[in-house]
Structure formats: C-alpha cells, structure tokens
C-alpha cells in the first residue's frame, strides 16, 4: 500500500492578519492545501487519491522483489513514489513418510528404509535433497527449501528385520501348455531388503506331467536370515490345444494414496481414457478430496487401511475392522458410496503381522464373511524399491508378456517415478491388444498364499 507524505501539496506560511483580538497569532504556522483560500481557523483539503496512477505488478505466487510506481499530477505539480514489495516464502517443506512409520535395522547392520517424499510449495519435489542421519534410536530426515525454511522429521529405528523376501516369477503365475509340450522352468527373481544373495535359498517343489491334461502347481519358497518367509505358486495348465488369448485384461491398481501424486496419475489415465483401481488410505488427509475425482472419472476405489500402521491394524480383528470401517466412512463422505473391495496392507501373504500368529488366516475368512472381495496381485511393479521410471515400466511390461489371461498390477502413487512409468506401460498394453479395466466385485481374483 502507498502512504504519501501528508504535506506533499501543502504550503506553510506565517499569517499577517490581525483579527481584532487581544491575541496576536503571528507566531503560529498554518498548513494549507495548495490552491485553497485561507480563512481564520478554517481550511479544507481536497482528497486527490483517485488521481494516483500505479504501474507495476506483484506476483504473490512467486518469491521475489517487485517495484510499484505511484505517480500523481495535480495543478501542474507532479510527484512519483517507488515502493518495493517483497514476496517471501515462510512455509517449510513437508516430509511425508510412505509405508510404515519406522525403519528396520537388519541383522547385518544395514537399514531398510520405506519410501518417503519431500515437497515444497515453491520448490516442488525436494526428495533428492533430503539429508538423512542416525541419531540414537531415530533415523532423522532434514531438508531446506531455496528460501531457507527447514523441516526435520524422524522415524524410529526398529532393530529387527520384519520384511519378507520378494519372489517375482518370470513368465507370470499362470502358464498354458499343449498336451505333450515340455514344461521348461521359466525361472524367477528373488530379492530381499537385507540379504543380498538369497537365490540359492529358494526351494522349488511340485511337478508337471505334460503328457496328462490337468492343472499343476509349482511352489517357490524362501526364508531370509531374519527368518522372514515368502512363498509364491505358479499354476501350469496342460490342455489338448493351445488356449487362444485375445484382449488380455490389465487391472492397474495403485496403493497408499491419495497423495500429492494421485492427480498426476489421474491426468495420465484421462489422457488415454484408461480406468484403474485405487486402494486408498487416509495417511495424507489434505488429499482426501481427490477421492471425489477418482470416483467421478469412473475409477474403482478399494479399501487399503485408514492408518497403514501394521502394529495397530493387525493387533486383533477388532482393530482391523475398526480401521477399515473408518476408512469406508471417509470414502462414503467423498464419493457418496461405500466400497466392497479391499487389499490388505502388506498383501494377503504379508509377514509383518507375524507378531499376531494366525491373524491373516482369520481376517481372510472374516472379510469374505462380511461381503468384501479382497485382491492381491500377480504383477509387481517393484516401484517401492526402484527409483527409475523406465526400470519400473520395464519390470511391469516383462511380466505382462506372460501367458496369463488377466494381470493385476501392483503400483503405488507415492513418487514421481511411478507417475512417469505409467505412460510407457499403458502404451505397451494398447499397442499389443490389452484391455484396461477397473476392479469390481465381479472381477477375477488373485490371492497369495497366506503366510500367517
């Protein structure tokens, strides 16, 4: 705002008029507006604020110094005033923890760190600028924006490894063979957050008789150094003729949102007119209104977890359903309808719930009894560990080249690399005759083997 000096157009003088009173006021000063007439004890000033012209602009959305120039012409006199407006950023960046609240310290000493995201209203994505260090029992994250605003956040260090290994089946979890066609093991890829090389620990069991029609199962099992166990099963179907597969169906699913990236994912899906499924949480309350857009644009909304805190939701069955019911009320609030599909936090085969033996077996039964349909996945994008968008896309595409009739793809809307990988995945599918659909209670189901 401009504050003009009050006496810019005032004239000071000493009056010489005697007014017939005993008192002489020659020693006084009178201030008058330029061009006005003097009357004893009375004068008036004209408000000329409307004559002021202002040039220059201030962009309150961008940090910087802006100059406004105020100019006025009045009765032949001109005045100019320059005023500098400083727009500064005093809002600190935000660090969002994605996945579990703590970090796991492996037996060998290395840290397993769940994903995180750092964002700033002015600087955008600051994840790569986050500094991390160990301070006692905490893993400390700090980041500053270009204006010097700093944010510090902490994760508690859990001195044990509770994350199971991951097995990816090359060629997919279902294979079709023509009678008498030899079964050749396609192979697998196994990874673990703590153990670097555990391929030799994988145990494969089961046989395929390609000379006899039927369905056969090959089981792959592995246990890491912290005794975390994982198993996956491949189904091999032997028939008289090769099954003709046309218009394979891809179900893109996104866990753990809505988040800062969900709308970017929605933009990509809208660009290609693709419908997908979002297994949502309430971890990031300010993004919950995005649920309305997800619903309005024809995507499916599934329940994942209100809190996504494993220790809480898997403590007992009541805690789990309180969490799911609370989330479903949030979904109803923003979309007008409840959801009947869900995905367990960590998946149906998770071992993070092993502190409560048998909880997943009981929950899988009870959610079905309550009318829910739960979905795991048969394509893992590995986007929680991969940071390169091309590698994420290639990981998915490699699995889409299998012999399955449908693919449920596990992805997360928690970092920009996941968003950038999406177009490559979609374009591969469309170019190769795949159909993209959202999940519903009538969709084909993938269930992992329950490990607890």
What's the layout of helices and strands?
Elements: E1 10-13, E2 30-33, E3 53-55, E4 64-74, E5 77-87, E6 94-97, E7 103-105, E8 111-112, E9 116-120, E10 124-125, E11 131-135, E12 138-144, E13 150-158, E14 166-169, E15 174-178, E16 188-191, E17 203-205, E18 214-223, E19 229-239, E20 249-255, H1 262-272, E21 277-281, H2 290-296, E22 300-305, H3 310-313, H4 317-335, E23 341-342, H5 359-369, E24 373-374, E25 379-380, H6 389-400, E26 406-412, H7 416-431, E27 435-436
Parallel strand pairs: 7-13, 15-19, 20-21, 20-26, 20-27, 21-22, 23-24, 25-26
Antiparallel strand pairs: 1-2, 3-4, 4-5, 6-9, 7-8, 9-10, 11-12, 12-13, 14-16, 17-18, 18-19
Helix pairs in contact: 1-7, 6-7
Provide a concise account of the structure shown:
By secondary structure, the protein is α/β, with parallel strands linked by helices. It has helices spanning 262-272, 290-296, 310-313, 317-335, 359-369, 389-400, 416-431, and strands at residues 10-13, 30-33, 53-55, 64-74, 77-87, 94-97, 103-105, 111-112, 116-120, 124-125, 131-135, 138-144, 150-158, 166-169, 174-178, 188-191, 203-205, 214-223, 229-239, 249-255, 277-281, 300-305, 341-342, 373-374, 379-380, 406-412, 435-436. Strands 20, 21, 22, 25, 26 and 27 form a six-stranded parallel β-sheet that branches.
